[in-house]
Each structure stands twice: as structure tokens, then as C-alpha cells.
Specification:
The chain has about 110 residues and is mainly alpha-helical. About 25% of the residues lie in helices and about 5% in strands.
């Protein structure tokens, strides 16, 4: 997720997954190097996932009639664990930078 100093003429598209104008979504400088970027922690990665799924299925406000939450509910009902061999337990922001999920950019 790029870090953006907000202006009135900017907007989010598809929730907070994309910004307009499109140039705001760039994570690399056109002349080379990384731009500052960050991470958003989604509730689906927290221990409260089951409660969140039930809440969102009840609200029925999500994209595509909440199909994503229906799939989470099915997985949780089948006692599936969302942890896999590629999963990492969150430690701190430095870990996210080492994993390449965020960057302080070339300015820091």
C-alpha cells in the first residue's frame, strides 16, 4: 500500500484496494528505486476472524454479496487452519520491511 498525503481530488476504488489517480498506486519510482509503502492489517489475519466473519455475513454489505466471507465461514466450520508453511507470525514493522511487504523508500 503506497503512503499517500491525501488531497480532495483523490479517491479509493474497490474499498481501499486501489487509488485514483492511478499513479498513486505506484510502489517504484520511474527513475529507479522504491517509494515509501506500508501495510494494512486485515481482521482476517487476527484471532477474531470467526467473529468478524459472522458479523460481516449478518451485515451483508460486502463486495459480491460477501462470497469471500462465505468461503472463510466454510473453511472455519471445517476446522481448517488458515496457517500454512508460508505463514509468518507478525513481529514488528521491521519484519514487514525485511519480507518486502513495505518499504521506507529511498529517502530514509
Amino acid at each position: 500500500v503506497p503512503l499517500v498525503k491525501w488531497r480532495r481530488d483523490y479517491c479509493y476504488v474497490n474499498s481501499t484496494h486501489m487509488l485514483l489517480p492511478r499513479s498513486l498506486n505506484l510502489l517504484f519510482d520511474r527513475e529507479g528505486g522504491e517509494l515509501a509503502s506500508g501495510c494494512l492489517l486485515h481482521a482476517k489475519f487476527l484471532p477474531i476472524l470467526g467473529d468478524k466473519v459472522a458479523e460481516e455475513l449478518d451485515r451483508k454489505q460486502h463486495f459480491a454479496d460477501g462470497r469471500e466471507y462465505l468461503r472463510y465461514a466454510e473453511a472455519l466450520n471445517d476446522d481448517h487452519d488458515l496457517w500454512c508453511k508460508w505463514s509468518e507470525r507478525y513481529v514488528n514493522w521491521r519484519q514487514l520491511e525485511i519480507l518486502g511487504l513495505m518499504s521506507k523508500g529511498c529517502w530514509a
